[in-house]
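Before a colleague's protein record goes any further, I have to sign it off. Thanks in advance; the entry in question is below:
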Amino acid sequence: MTATSYTGAWPVAPTPFNDDGSLDLPGMRRVVDCIVDQGADGICILANFSEQFLLADAERETLTRLCIEHLAGRRPVIVTISHYATPIVVERAKLAKALGADAVMMMPPYHGALLKGTAEQTFEQFARVGEVGIPIMIQDAPLSGVDLPVPLLVRMAREIEMVKLFKIECAGAAAKLRRLVAEGGASVEAPFDGEEGITMLADLDAGARGTMCSAMVTEHIRQVVLDHLGGDRAAAAAGYQRLLPAVNHENRQCGFRAAKAAMVEGRVFASAFCRHPVPPLSPETRAELLDHLRPLDPISMRWGR
């Protein structure tokens, strides 16, 4: 991939399970096919919205291999490799590269509320992964609880060759993106936002070139990005405003369970099961989500029908 190809919508693939909690591998292949049919510019696997924190190490390897092999080059793929332990992150990066991934995504090192990497330890972990020789997306997410100030991000962009992509989804993402783009210059090759695109319009105004959304309404989110990058902000704003009720419900009420609910409705896979301790969506919350989605007629809700 070139820097210019890091644009558009790069949804996180949900991980389907069977009702007994085992991996639904045929369903995972169908998820990949559905996302390709949504027109996604790339795919991210094993991220937080893939329930990566509920997967065993062997399952991670199985899913990485399956997704990359099934994609067969149809779309570039980013593999999430975050872990507190630097040796584990490095090994995950090596596996992703060996299997043909195009990039990896990492949060800074953290484990719970009190074990957090310092700025220097964070830099060192990313530098070690950079030695593997695969492009890196830095995920600046509230889940880690680790502060990634703009000067640190710029330093990593300038001093670690493989740090090329930035997913900024902290509070006040637009202001941080604007400063990151201004101070990082050409070193910041691919500024993205996240959080399902809930602040996407402000983030695009601030210089984001793409978004890592969920796989719920990928084709519509992608169109907002394309309209904005093409200079038609009015169309981008109209598209964003049309999507916002559904994306807000996803972000504030459902989390990663939203894309799974949409894909079950669309018969991409059969079960919306989430592993304990994650509770299922309440019937009321699910019904409200689908009510928001039906006017959008997303591919995720009709792909397998």
About this structure: Residues 233-254 form the longest helix (22 residues). The two ends are 34 Å apart (CA to CA). The domain at 3-243 is CATH 3.20.20.70 (TIM Barrel).
